[in-house]
Amino acid sequence: MDRVVECEHGEEMTALMSLALDHLLEEAERQALDRHLAACAFCRSEWVAMQQVSVVLEASPLVGPPLGFAVRVERRLEEQAKKQRQVFGGLALFTSSLSLAGMTVAAALMLVMGIVAWRWLDASPAVQQGTQAVSKVASGMGLVGKGASLFLGDLLLRYGAPLVVILGVGLVVLVGVWAWLFLKRPGNTRHNGFA
Asked: In whole angstroms, what is the distance from residue 155 CA to residue 87 CA?
C-alpha cells in the first residue's frame, strides 16, 4: 500500500477547495484546482472528505434560535447600557458635585473674607501700610510681582464693595447650578423624564 505524502501546497489548495464548495471559484482557479487534484493524492483525499462533510451539512435542517431569543438578548443589552449610563451619570454627578462644592466653599470663604475686610478694615491706615508692605516684598521679586501687588491692593481699596457683590452673585449661581444638577441626577425619575 502506498503511503500518501502531505502536499506542500496544502493550505493554498484547502482554501481553493473551500471556495469551490461555496461555488465562489473563477474558471481559471477551478481548472488549477482540478489539475492539482488529478496529480496529488493527499489533496484528493482531503477534497473527498470535504465534499462528504458538505453533503451532510446541506442535508441537516437549519435550526434557528429559540422563540424570543432575540428579544431577550436585546433586553439584556438595553439593561447593560442603562446600567452603564447610570454609573457614568453617577460618577459625573459625583465629580461635578465635588468640584462645585469646592468652588462654592472657596467663593463663600472669599465672600466672608471680603465682607470682613470691607467692614472692619475698610480703608484704614493699617490696610494701606499692609498693602505697601506687600508691595515692597513684591518689588523684591520683580516688576511683575510689584505691578500685580499694586493692582490688587488698589483694586481691593477702590472696588471692595462691588467685588463682594460679584462674589455673592457667583455664589448664588454656583448653588443654583448645584441644585439643578442634583435634581437632574440619574435615578431621579420625577424630574429627568427617564423611567
From this structure: 45
